[in-house]
Amino acid sequence: MEKHDVLIIGLGPVGAILASLCARAGLSVKVIERDYEVYKEPRAIVLDHEVVRQLGLIDCAEEVLAHSTPGQGYEFINADREILTARGAPPGPMPTGYWPANLFHQPSMERVIRSKLEKMPNVDIELGVEFLGFEQDDEGVNAIARRADGTLAEFPARYAVGCDGGRSLVRRYLDVQMEDLNFNEPWVVVDVKLLSDDTGLSKNGVQLCDPARPTTCVPSGPGRHRWEFMLKPHETAEEVTSPETLREWISAWTDPDKIELERSAVYRFHGLVAKKWRGGRVMIIGDAAHQMPPFMGQGLCAGARDAFNLAWKLVAVANGEAPLEFLDTVERERSPHVKEVTKGAIAMGKTVCVTDPDEAKLRDEKMMADHKAGKGFAFPGVPRIESGVLDDRLAGSVFPEPFIGDPSDPDRFDAAAGYRPLLIVRNMDTLSDSARTALDAASARFSIAALKSDTQGFPQLLDPEGMVAELMDEAEAILVKSDRIVFGRGGVNDLLFKWGEYLRQGLLMTRSGC
Predict the structure, then answer these.
(1) Exposed, middle or buried, 307 (CB in 10 Å: 0-12/13-18/19+)?
(2) pTM score above 0.90
(3) Residue 283 dihedral angles phi and psi, to the nearest 5°
């Protein structure tokens, strides 16, 4: 029986991304999934610029963008449809080269990733397999599962990752408890196809702060739209998902004859984060490790970030470059980040979910006064990573994507660099002999480039607007993790030494908030 390097349980988007990354890095990957097909109905609808850029590392960004549309503005309105606060459309792409928010169709995205995954020779996907449990020891993990014909099967691997969703069985077998961030509200989510170009629906995301029925109305990709309606305590799933009820509610926004109901489902929006992400050689990521309300559109983005954070670390541990305990850095780096994003989404949700008319009146008055005074609403943002990086004001942030090649027809550097850490040098001509020697030795593990190159063969970055040079400041070099999070700046020798310490100890460096 073949023992794979990594067993991934669950082939949703997070599991598929993780499998692709591990396989591209040379690991043998086994994936088991209970369902035979990609889940046909949309769930997540937002990919931010960081995650789209990361999808480029598995050669999927442009194909996924073909099923998306750039997000525009965002506004809160009261029951009388008056603006409480608003954020306008972004001026253009982010330094990553992609739109801040991209509204997409999840089934199409998953098919893009899976189609590429199925062609990879070191990936073995088995569908119709239900995970039952596992055993593990110092050598690896042995998962037990049931195939569709009822027979039991074993799947041995050196490491296993549960990407099996909010009801994760892997999490249960690890006996992991969830930290409750105190948000629990029932909503019905309604997805529709637009049958007309003149629906009158806004291209902005809209939060209707109506105490009688808090509602979200947002584009959800080309030719699609989504509503989310908060439920009242006495309402049942059966009545709120009936076509008659949904048509009535939607008629307040557009002519229901101009849309086609695609699906509706009742969810409890809540904020939960696992208290432990690793048990021995088994990890959990994505919805198995955290869930958040949808008000910031960050649920799937958070899971994708998990995968991009974890994959290169699995490779490092599997190849003997780091100890098993290094995998704990996934939780140390990702859990605080996920909690902050979840708290931001909860804060937005609590602003919307006011059902007491008097409290809503006070909220509306304050928000409108702030809006007129130019103060606006503090829309939560996505924070930096605060652990596993150097004490550097740039560390923990997303590194912009530079270009290389012909200035008249440049190529994205990520396409050439791949899913590896980056070491960007300011000027090859001014490096010391020891730094040059260290750089040559590091070329097997890093993708290396320079703002000013020489004849050593390292590519020269195109930086016509000086964006990368400005970020580097006076530093000799900048080191960027495989997931494109900045590790820090400094001298080549010092950065490589601290990188080695990070792999060995994980907790050595933590940003002090400078």
Answers:
(1) buried
(2) yes
(3) -120, 160
User: Residue 461 pairs with which residues in a beta bridge?
Assistant: 404
Beta carbons within 10 angstroms of residue 382's beta carbon:
18
Question: How far is the first Cα of the chain from the last one, in angstroms, to the nearest whole number?
Answer: 52
- Judged by DSSP in three states, 269 sits in strand
Distance CA 295, CA 318 (A): 38
CA atoms within 13 A on the CB side of 461: 25
SS (H, E, C) 399-455: CCCCEECCCCCCEEHHHHHCCCCEEEEEEHHHCCHHHHHHHHHHCCCCEEEEEECCC
CB 18 within 8 A of CB 285: yes
Which residues are within 8 A (CB) of 244 and not within 5 positions of it... i.e. 6 or more apart? none
Q: For residue 162, what pLDDT band results from cuts at 50, 70 and 90?
A: very high
Return the DSSP state at 204.
S
Report which residue type is found at 88.
G
C-alpha pair distances (Å), 408 with each of 93, 96, 412, 450, 451? 20, 19, 13, 19, 17
Model pLDDT, residue 507: 62
**Half-sphere CA count of 467, side-chain side, radius 13 A:** 14
Under a CB-based contact definition with an 8 Å cutoff, are residues 228 and 190 in contact? yes
Mean pLDDT, the chain, as a whole number?
94
* Cβ neighbours for 21, distance < 8 A, ≥ 6 positions apart: 57, 58, 307, 308, 311, 312, 419
What residues pair up with 411 in beta bridges, in sequence order? 404
Q: How far apart are CA 324 and CA 327, in angstroms?
A: 6
